[in-house]
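Q: I'm writing up a methods section and want to include an example of the input and output format. Could you take the sequence below and give the corresponding predicted structure tokens, formatted cleanly so I can copy it straight into the document?
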Amino acid sequence: MTILVTPDGALRQIDEHIDILRRLLTDLEELRRSGVPTPSSLGEAPFLDKWSFAHRLVPCLSGYPEGHPTCRSGRMARTSDLWVIAPERGYARTLTRFYRLGTRGSVDATAS
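A: Here is the clean output for your methods example:
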């Protein structure tokens, strides 16, 4: 669910992503308020049989942060899920914060 900002400033698929996130926020607020999904939410929900927990990879960035509130400066780190990337404009937005982007490197993607 990464939004690419093109060199001319266009934001690819941002409206679709906003709609998805708005619906998620609405559902989470309803769960907080009542503790259960609304009957219409579950009535319209697809059925998932023989389900199990699984994991999938999500895009993120790795690099050397400076001025991060919890990561030590100069040590390799990995960001939370990448939502917006605008390399030509010098920024990225992850699930938790904006980053100002420096030079692009070839860092080890297995760093934590």
